[in-house]
Amino acid sequence: MSRNNSVLARKRQEKEDKESAVAQFLAKQLDEVWFDARNGVHLVRKGEVIVPDKGYLKALEYPLSQLIRTRKEIRQCINELDAQIKHERSVQYHGPVAGQKAGAWLECSGSKWLVTSSPKYIEPVKGDWPNLRRLIETLLPEDIAQDALYSWCKTQYQAIQTGRHSQCPILIFAGDTGDGKTLLLSLITALRGGREINPIKAWSGEGPAWSDHLLGSECLNIDDSVALKNYQARQNLATKVKEAIFANSVTIDKRNNTSFTINPRPAWGVAMAVNANSDSIKTVPALDGADMADKAVVLRTHRAEILYREEGDHAVEKRYKAYADELAAFADWLLNRWSQPDSLPSGCVVGRSGTLVYRDPEALTELHRATPAGLFEEVIRELCERSFIKQNILADELASLERPISTATILNLARTFFERDRRIPEAVQTAGKFLSQIAARPDACIEEAGKNRNHSKLWRFKPEALNPDS
Average pLDDT in the 20-48 region? Predict the structure, then answer.
């Protein structure tokens, strides 16, 4: 009798163990499988991503055959699981979303959105980062430029960690060819999750306006080689940057589908690297408007000390790995040891995201020269130089530059001396706008001098502009 009880107890335990194993197996499926109701396919977590799997149900037969005796019971179990998944885990939309982890549920225009992949998080680890530090300190020799970069990187890193978008200004590196700015941009892209895309085709207005391909990339890195170089395109680009960074919600346009919004919105950061002394400077978003004053960090880069520079392209992989291996220590330093300076230089402010907004004067001058206002200033400076040509028949008119002068008078003088020069605006209103932009600069050749009886602005040429040799 004791032996029979022992056998029965063993069989009962085996049955309970199998039932428990089946329950655990099914629970795992309910945790890692969803159903795409729009396309009629199961979505299955495989490692760090969630992908469509049309053969999912068929693939369940083998593992269940190790736990369930009869084929009929297996089929019944699979059917019940399938029904439960479709009832409890059905989604309308799915895909990666910047800043969000795989498996997260988001709201998409009233429906559910399943996040299917995660950024590649770099976990902070205490340590040293001498190579990366040397790269940054030689590329950006000024302390305030370094602090502006650290502030930007910390804000962006925390946004990726938390999945909450930060209204962090666009970061612009402007420097010389081969100075190391592109290398640094690639490293801070890796720090922010490694997923990058160039948004210029969607933002330029010259091609398809679909923007759904931007949804899954934290790093919107603008490539200056393909960006448009006319000023209208730069103004349009500035508008798109503001919409992408500073709007509380963004509209995503999808080909052959209705536009939608997603909540929480994608955690984007916009950056670009340009050659300051070439035509590519004309690809930078227009920054001369007052509404862009706190929306861009502009850093002038210099030739950096780069590991294995003398080995050229042969050392690309070795060089990048040496820097990338220090990113975890850099992240820890940003989070736990770096702090913003107590006092900030003139022109440097703390933006709404907590990021230091600094615009290097040298870089801004180079950017200004590539704008219509900068080109008009070239004409005005040349006009000032002509005031010393005594034999010129307009010497009396040029002498008036020492007194307050109207926008219309400046425009007429420019047209007289530089006939058909395309740098000169056609309308007085446009000329007045450009003169305001010029006068707002610290190195301007003109300044505001009140208003006339018609309440129109008057301008005065600075003495150093009229007499550069003094």
Answer: 93
